[in-house]
Design goal:
By secondary structure, the chain is mainly alpha-helical. It is built from five helices and no strands. α4 packs antiparallel against α5.
């Protein structure tokens, strides 16, 4: 009986150690949210630049650098150029579109 208590205690100890040792994995939607937040900022910044008279879509896309590999950033620039200058919520629109594609992937 005493041996059985030690065995059960050892199993419980190992199980609890594994639970604490497991490194938490960042859920996909949290990673998507951080990327989409940057997409939102890109759309808003681009629209503000357009309001100030800037009109160089190709130059804006070229300035993305490594982010140009992600179609969401080019979408952010496109949505800012294709929309009316007085439209509000461009950044939120880009964020929602990004989340729809990133979190669903």
């Amino acid at each position: 009986m005493k041996m059985m208590t030690y065995v059960i205690g050892a199993i419980c100890a190992v199980a609890s150690l594994q639970a604490y040792a497991a490194e938490p994995v960042k859920p996909t939607h949290q990673n998507a949210a951080s990327v989409c937040k940057r997409v939102q900022e890109t759309a808003e910044t681009t629209l503000q630049a357009r309001k100030g008279g800037h009109n160089d879509r190709a130059g804006d896309k070229a300035s993305l650098g490594s982010k140009s590999n992600d179609p969401m950033f080019t979408y952010a620039i496109d949505v800012a150029y294709d929309s009316d200058l007085n439209k509000t919520g461009i950044g939120q629109e880009a964020y929602d579109y990004c989340m729809l594609h990133k979190a669903g992937a």
